[in-house]
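Long-time lurker, first post. I've been practising inverse folding by hand and with some scripts of my own, and I keep getting stuck on stretches where the structure tokens seem ambiguous. Below is the full token string for one chain I'm working on. Before anyone asks, I'm not after the true native sequence, just a reasonable design that respects the backbone. If someone could post their per-position residues I'd love to compare against what I wrote down in my notebook.
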């Protein structure tokens, strides 16, 4: 697997549904409201940075999303020339490497096996939008001046979720894999309101592998534009005949 594909894949395949969740604090009259953005089509633009094994990459990404269906990403390194295009649907991840004239096609089962985490479309959508990876289901809550927090579990994964007391948004999530002890930590900051929907402007994440043979990976994403589109979007993705499959 070449370096470009690795960086793209790790950057967008983290940490489901896009539902507006409301729950009552157990044993408390206070109300916990978790707000996930509602839309059908969304466009956004972001700058992102990867730091993996002392190799640093920065680029600009343009996103197009049809909620719960398709995620499309165009990547440019800063010179205005597209170097890669990513398409994620409910079953697959496709990547065009325009530098090396190659393309990749993976199922989520293949990616999960290769990277040691349980990837899915919903998880990718959640991390891009700052949504809960698993809905709140009346788990025991703890409250501080800054957060409501609770623990949840899905299969071999343990989630620690921190909901902002003021933002009503997921501000931090930590995931630990019971079998490998690999962890993912994601922080969301600087929330903005677009057409009455709330989005995080800043996302920082760390993949921490328990094995010393796999170096940690750090990712920072800074959005500078969100637009809830009123008309359907297109998601152009065509593999040229001269491209080889990897």
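-- Answer (accepted) --
I ran through it position by position. Result:
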């Amino acid at each position: 697997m070449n370096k470009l594909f690795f960086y793209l894949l790790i950057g967008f395949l983290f940490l489901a549904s896009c539902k507006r969740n409301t729950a009552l604090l157990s044993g408390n009259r206070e109300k916990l409201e978790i707000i996930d953005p509602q839309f059908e089509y969304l466009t956004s633009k972001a700058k992102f940075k990867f730091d993996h094994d002392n190799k640093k990459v920065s680029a600009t990404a343009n996103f197009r999303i049809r909620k719960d269906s398709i995620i499309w990403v165009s990547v440019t390194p800063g010179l205005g020339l597209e170097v890669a295009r990513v398409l994620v649907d409910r079953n697959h991840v496709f990547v065009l490497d325009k530098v090396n004239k190659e393309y990749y096609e993976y199922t989520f089962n293949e990616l999960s096996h290769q990277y040691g985490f349980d990837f899915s479309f919903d998880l990718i959508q959640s991390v891009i939008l700052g949504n809960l990876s698993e809905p709140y289901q009346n788990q025991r809550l703890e409250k501080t001046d800054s957060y409501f927090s609770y623990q949840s579990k899905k299969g071999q994964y343990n989630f620690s979720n921190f909901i902002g007391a003021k933002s009503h948004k997921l501000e931090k999530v930590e995931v630990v894999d019971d079998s490998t002890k690999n962890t993912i930590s994601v922080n969301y900051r600087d929330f903005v309101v677009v057409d009455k929907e709330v989005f995080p402007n800043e996302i920082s994440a760390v993949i921490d592998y328990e094995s010393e043979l796999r170096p940690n990976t750090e990712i920072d994403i800074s959005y500078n534009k969100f637009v809830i589109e009123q008309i359907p979007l297109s998601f152009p993705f065509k593999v040229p005949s001269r491209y080889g499959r990897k």
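A couple of notes from the structure itself: The domain at 36-245 is CATH 2.50.20.10 (outer membrane lipoprotein receptor (LolB), chain A). Residues 1-10, 12-29 have pLDDT under 50 and may be disordered. Happy to go over any region you disagree with.
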